[in-house]
């Protein structure tokens, strides 16, 4: 009897395979430019670069990580001087998170490299194919919810 199960055709496997290769490329860029950060830290820093002053729960929601992991990541980023926590203006229980000058400089250094990787990943793929890919991935994410 023939086995019809092929894990290499599973959507999750295909997505994770791509994620692994992309993360490796990005981590190499970090190291080549003298930044000892993880991909998870980079994900949090991206959110804060785009939306300064978010509170921890908002960061967790945008990065699809739980609050415990976000706390750990923020502690490391704070210790390394990439972020600062400031008291929320209207909610004394909350802290707003901002990039420091050091964190912003890192982005200024790395964004051109990240953009170059992104362009290489899109090589040979039309704008229409990219729109279709984005649409398909969004449907997969909704189905996974």
UniProtKB/TrEMBL annotation:
| Domain HTH marR-type: start-end pairs | 1-142
Record-linked InterPro entries: HTH_MarR-typ, WH-like_DNA-bd_sf, WH_DNA-bd_sf
Q: Which domain of life is it from?
A: Bacteria
Q: Matching PROSITE patterns, A to Z?
A: HTH_MARR_2
Q: Which Gene3D superfamilies match?
A: Winged helix-like DNA-binding domain superfamily/Winged helix DNA-binding domain (1.10.10.10)
Task: Kindly list the residue ranges recorded as spanning the membrane.
Answer: none
The UniProt entry, under SUPFAM superfamilies, shows:
Winged helix' DNA-binding domain
Q: Which UniProt keywords apply?
A: DNA-binding, Transcription, Transcription regulation
Q: Does the keyword Repeat apply?
A: no
Q: What is this protein called?
A: MarR family transcriptional regulator
């Amino acid at each position: 009897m023939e086995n019809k199960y092929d894990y290499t055709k599973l959507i999750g496997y295909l997505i994770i395979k791509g994620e692994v290769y992309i993360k490796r490329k990005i981590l190499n860029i970090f190291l080549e430019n003298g930044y000892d950060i993880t991909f998870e830290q980079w994900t949090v820093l991206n959110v804060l670069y785009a939306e300064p002053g978010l509170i921890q729960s908002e960061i967790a929601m945008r990065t699809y990580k739980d609050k415990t992991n976000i706390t750990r990541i923020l502690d490391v980023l704070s210790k390394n001087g990439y972020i600062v926590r400031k008291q929320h203006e209207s909610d004394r229980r909350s802290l707003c998170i901002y990039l420091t000058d050091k964190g912003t400089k890192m982005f200024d250094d790395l964004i051109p490299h990240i953009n170059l990787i992104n362009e290489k990943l899109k090589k040979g793929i039309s704008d229409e194919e990219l729109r279709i890919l984005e649409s398909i991935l969004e449907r997969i994410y909704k189905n996974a919810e």
